Amino acid sequence: MTAQRKAVLDVLHRWHDHPTADEVFLRVRKLLPKVSLATVYRNLDVLAEQDEIQVIEFPGQPRRYDAVTRPHYHIVCVECGRVEDIHLDRVPDLGALVQRTGAYEVLATRLEFEGRCSRCRAR
Amino acid sequence: MTAQRKAVLDVLHRWHDHPTADEVFLRVRKLLPKVSLATVYRNLDVLAEQDEIQVIEFPGQPRRYDAVTRPHYHIVCVECGRVEDIHLDRVPDLGALVQRTGAYEVLATRLEFEGRCSRCRAR
DNA sequence: AATGCTACCAGGAACTACTCCCAATAAATG
DNA sequence: CATTTATTGGGAGTAGTTCCTGGTAGCATT
């Protein structure tokens, strides 16, 4: 656990606004001004591999990162791009359903939402 | 409806293997050898806007296109990248559930699957 | 038929979000 | 303390897509 890796993790523990790699980079650079973007990307990959952080991928948007690893869902605002958490209980196991219907071994189910956040709706 | 736009649509009506823009381009070029990639992209956008085709977006992968617009789901093979259709009945309206829990106006629900196709599993 | 208008075109440059490479440095191990 | 191993910063490269420029096609109005 190098200073760089720790700084990346700290940033994600401190802020829960689902920053992009670039945003993490800008925040880490305040602590370690010489850090490189490649290092941030590398450490985000390593931390995700170790399940210390979660990767949030919305198509056509930069990846976002989240230090909260317990399962929950995300919604992205189509206007401002903000990503927020959604907590849902008792979501049926749709992956199992798919597994039964076909020839696929189902490895993951991706469930995400798009909408307009209250702030953008107010405008 | 120019010849180029018609050719793009024809390609998607003829093949249902969820081609990428690049694959559409290669197929259109057999009919219209001078067509440009930008034109294919533009017409895919226009056709999607008009709901004549559907866009399939898996994060980190090129977009794929589908002339079948009635709602169905997709699964991508993590090994070969092939995208296949999944037909599911009676999927609960998770978007409505989310709408009730929070401040968001839910505009779309994205439900996709990842797995290993039978062909890759056989190897 | 000439003019203006709009939509569309090809080709290439530009852009974004990564990803890869490499020499230099730091950490871990014996 | 020496050496192996992991990690670093910086810069170049990449894939997929978008943007820009100048030009053309089709159509309505004169």
Please name the defining characteristics of this protein.
123 residues, globular, Arc Repressor Mutant, subunit A, alpha+beta, DNA-binding, two-stranded antiparallel sheet, Dna Ligase, domain 1, 5 helices, three-stranded mixed beta sheet, homodimer
What does this molecule look like?
2 copies of one chain form a homodimer. The first copy, chain A, is an alpha+beta fold and about 120 residues long. Chain A folds into 2 domains: about 60 residues, Arc Repressor Mutant, subunit A (Orthogonal Bundle); about 50 residues, 2-Layer Sandwich (Dna Ligase, domain 1), CATH 3.30.1490. Helix content of chain A is about 40%, strand content about 20%. Chain A is built from 5 helices and 5 strands; from the N terminus they run αααββββαβα. A 3-stranded mixed β-sheet of chain A has the order 4-3-5. In chain A, strands 1-2 form a two-stranded antiparallel sheet. Chain A starts with a helix and ends with a helix. At the A-B interface, strand 3, helix 4 and strand 5 of A face strand 3, helix 4 and strand 5 of B. The structure holds a DNA duplex (30 and 30 nucleotides).
